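# step 3/5: fold
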Amino acid sequence: MAVLLKGAAVTAALNEQLKVRVQKLESQGITPCLAILRVGERGDDIAYERGAVKRCDGIGILVKKYVLDIDAGQDELMKTIEIINRDPAIHGCLMFRPLPKHYNEEEARNALAPSKDIDGITNTSLAGVFGGTNSGFPPCTAAAAMEILAHYGIELKGKNAVVIGRSLVIGKPVAMMLIKENATVTICHTRTVDMPAVCQRADIIVAAAGRAKMVDMTYLNENQVVIDVGINVDESGKLCGDVDFEMAEPIVSAITPVPGGVGTVTTSVLAKHLVEAAERTVR
């Protein structure tokens, strides 16, 4: 039976650390401030926003919301980004994506000041992740996966890690972050030949394909640590990951549940990045 790598313990530890750091900033006359930029009323955006605001409130981070009508237009969006960039009291911005299809998302995300890009959406931030520098912040979900591995003391040096998925939101960034910790990394994707055989040889699997219960027993071995980043809905309408948890849990050595795993940690990572961005203004 696998050890459950629950996100709640990771979040609790992060939150306590962040409260201390926020108090120190406040003693220096700085209140960390997050801007939330949302276009439209997508339900999943609003749900994540609610969780982020609650997390920030509990830590002592101020939140400013900028909500645009879905038909506000590109010019209005760019003006709003410029307002956020120019406000010295705002230390970071969470811009919800994907934007509605009639917006130029690439133009919008790269207009955000890299110093305020706390969710790794600009090309500058991603270059920092791929270059192994600290010039920006990685995407929060990828960083949350790494926080879980670190919190539970999972050794990465010299380990064989397989990342399933090659998106710029999770797959590629988390692969680079694993390499930075001296893991040997293979990225699998839709064109990978015999993916189960590749995964069976792994010490660590990070599943980020966006396909419900894709990873079954044929991918697994008894010594693996499995980080399931997927958020899907199965045929019965229940939330599930990319890994078939019922199959995997009796086989592998450790696994993140869905829900209750990586997703639980993401808003705390967002807050961590925001606090670090505020700290950089006084260094």
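# step 4/5: annotate
The chain has a mean pLDDT of 96.
# step 5/5: archive (pending)
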